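step: validate -> pass
step: tokenize input -> pass
step: predict -> running
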Amino acid sequence: MKIRVPNNSAPLFDDVAVSNDDVSREKATGAYYTPDAVVRSLISWALRRPTDRLLDPSCGDGRFLSVHSNSVGVEQEPSACKIVHERVPGSLIHQGDFFSWASRTQERFDCAAGNPPFIRYQRFTGEVREAAQRLCEKHGAFFSSLSSSWAPFLVVTASLLKPGGRMAFVVPAEIGHAPYAAPVLEYMTKQFDCVQVIAVLNKLFPELSEDCWLLYADGFGGSTREVRFTPLEHFSFCARPPRGGLAVSLAEWKQWNGRLRPFLVSAEARELYSIAADSRRTRRLGDIARVGIGYVTGANDFFHLRPSTVDRLGVPRNLLHPAVRNGKSLANGCVDQACVKSWLAADEPIMLLRLSPESEVPAPVRRYLDSPAGRDARKTYKCRNRNPWYAVPDVTVPDGFLSYMSGDGPKLVSNGAGCVGTNSVHVVHLTNGIGMDRLMKLWTEPLTALSCEIEGHPLGGGMLKLEPREAARVMLSDTAIRTDKDRETIEDAVVALKRWRHYV
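step: predict -> pass
step: emit ->
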């Protein structure tokens, strides 16, 4: 493979061909490989000379390796390794787990580029995760068990660079908001002279719900006190990392809870938000209410009965309680007796079988518990790990409900009907005397909407998720934003963040 010597405008790589076979293979395997423009850009950013030794720690089908002949790849899947050898004859591929290989290799690299695997913590487990955490801790980066695989991938890859080395990678947009992403950026700023995060609005991978950004770091062995943050509407090939954006100091980044996402809105909006946060007129939701997840049955379809089923089985009404099953139940803005009556009239399965450990179990209920459905339910993880299995714990009647996944924004509604709520919604218990009517009025303020966007996090598909700890930080005030101009600035910031999570 011939390498072109770069000048001021030409990148240091050969062209990459993406065939129809590549596309078919992606669809068949569920693995979507990096687009050509991104591959060529990242390689161009990382390379300085034709002789640079490049590492791709998760080389997949070899797209990055095919651009630069002096490269080393690591890949766990044997079928992918075979594809790489077909695509790049004579390429050096280490088959196996990257973290195991990294702990043994003595080789150090001039640069690294690639697209690390996005394996969420539920599947990133066992010996692989333990090896990754040990390696990261050795280099001063500490990750919780909730970390996805890409984060330790980047840290360990950086540790294999020579002094002055560079790296350029695709990263999930979670680098802008996930708590486990903070150790990545902290490590990078302590190890590189320059760290840049490029946020891209239009999806790099249109077929995926996951938003992806880009990370560039230069000058391994140095350090920096800032992160260069560059938001882009579109991404197309560029031979050098894009210029412009914001120089976000580490101190300012930490003031925003280690999140870059707030820097997607205007400086004026951030200033207003900060002023409101410091105002005595502003309170946090956690100051006036306790927010938590609803109860967990372990077998929702078994424990929630339809009225017709109740009548057929003869279950006593005093053992049943109407329940909010999901966020759709909050769509009308209230949960009152009229809502419950409409659910019952539609024969919806909203009647929770509410038995305590001390409950005397009537014969009709005992027959239901011993039915085939009951025998299946008691085998589920939650049921078999509680005694008795049929007594659902942590069932309370809250003052209100809060949706935790939404498109337009989290909905807060009062619980006028005295319902209980499953773990598909958050339950809200007031703690200091404020009424739900007052709280719901505050919830409609633009400041609160912006706070939900900043404290919550995008989930893909246009959705915003608000965990209980995030909900507790949501700001409430109807006086902190005083002028129409300031209110418009806050509203524009809400629109901007919704746009960045692709909610239309």
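step: describe -> DSSP finds 20 helices and 22 strands in the chain.
step: cleanup -> pass
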